[in-house]
Amino acid sequence: MAKKYKTSCHSNIQLLKAYHELLKDKRIKKTAWVERILRTRPVRSLSGVVNVSILTKPFSCPGHCLYCPEEKGVPKGYLSGEPAVERAKSLEYNPFLQTRIRIKSLEKQGHPTDKIDLRIIGGTWSYYPKNYQTKFIASSFAACNTASQKTTKRKIKSLEKEQKLNEKAEHRIIGISIETRPDFINKKEIKRMRVLGITKVEIGVQTTDDAVLKLNKRGHKVKETILATKMLKDAGFKVSYQVMPNLPGSTPKKDEKLFEDLFQNQNFKPDLLKIYPCAILKEAPLYKWYLKGKYKPYSKKVLMNVIKKAKRGTPRYVRIERIIRDIPAQRILVGPAKISNLREDIVNQIKKEGWRCKCIRCREIRNQYNPKEKLILFREDYKASDGIEIFLSFEDKERENLYSLLRLRIPSSVIEQNPTLKNQHLPLELKNSSIVREVHTYGQLVSIKKRGGATQHRGLGKKLIREAENISKKEFKLNKIAIISAIGTREYYKKIGYKLKGTYMTKLLMNRPQQ
Ligand code: SF4
Ligand SMILES: [Zn+2]
User: Fold this and answer.
1) Is the same domain home to 276 and 286?
2) pLDDT in tens, 317-355
3) Minimum-distance ligand 1 atom for the alpha carbon of 61
């Protein structure tokens, strides 16, 4: 037996393999501290959840963006060689298998996988046929609902049935995000996204300059971004922007203005941000522009300065999720977008200059949790998309470590005085209600069944929710609060007095009948 478990070199992966074999043979019991020590790439579960990214099948997109690559057999905007694309291709874009295999692989690396943040990528989600969308998401739920079973043979049930099962499943989906264009967001689309269980929408914004959008053939204007942002926020979605510095027609000055707009103009103010500098790819029409000398990328220094300035101006309630896309460097012809570790270079320069980026990602507590730390409840109010955003957080007193956050919104319909606009685009269940768009506790993901020991399950989320209820009731005289709960977090909210109404978890704050 000793021979069977023997490994020639004790890398974490090999030790984990031996540990799983011992578990399978029932020679040892599942032991959390062993898993913690053996966990590879711990960062994967240090934001409190594990991310599972899956790709939709290759499909066309109504856009003709100048910089966007098109490759046969891959969704528009993506390229073979990207890790997520290669995984999806090898499984013929099957959503069930993509989800199941990703969960299994994270488990093998020693990560708890019971809180899954499902990220659906590939093309323009809203352009895919409705039937495909429904089956795709039902299959992902089915994969989570059956991940702990050996068989993959069970038939996929209807979306509603799979969602119901997921409310109490071992692997719960605690968030779903999709990527789409701002001009595809309307009342019907919002309703549909809620039925599917989507909680976060990534929109391709690229720039806040109409002339640059036009030159790049985006096919929409800034006004569509403004409207989409407002409708999504009022419906409780988390809003993530993808922006693209160094586009044809832009300049470092214009890019600086882009970030100023994002963080200072109330029409934008995204919750999350991905900064993807424009890349020259052979598969995109921009390549011809480059060959003809019509387009030239910035130098590394110029691009780094633009991004550094963006980071300097980033408010505490924004999370910069990524800088530079995961495109294999050899596919990018020239320019600083080729430097895959550009983010690290920027972080190192910022360190040398002696300042810190205040964004959420740079302050998440991760594995630095200190149980003796005295946490302070901070509150930051700001106007956004004609409503009021109230950002609540538990942080240390220097505000360097962020433990937990909540985004409360008083929708534009409550704030705006013009009665003709009231509730026009709001889902009915949100009428005269405040809406909690996000509750997140950072630090190592802790299994749903376990209590204590880390940031998660220490009651921080509940305290923030209670504060949000008080603010809604006392300051805004609202008799109702709603939460854009993902399917897998409904149980949690039920336990603290919330009831499912439509696709939201809601609670009455005063003794008046719910409308
Ligand atoms: S909308 Fe997105 S996927 Fe479609 S062409 Fe433009 S960048 Fe590409
Ligand atoms: Zn940051």
Assistant:
1) yes
2) 999 999 988 888 888 888 888 887 889 999 999 999 999
3) 4
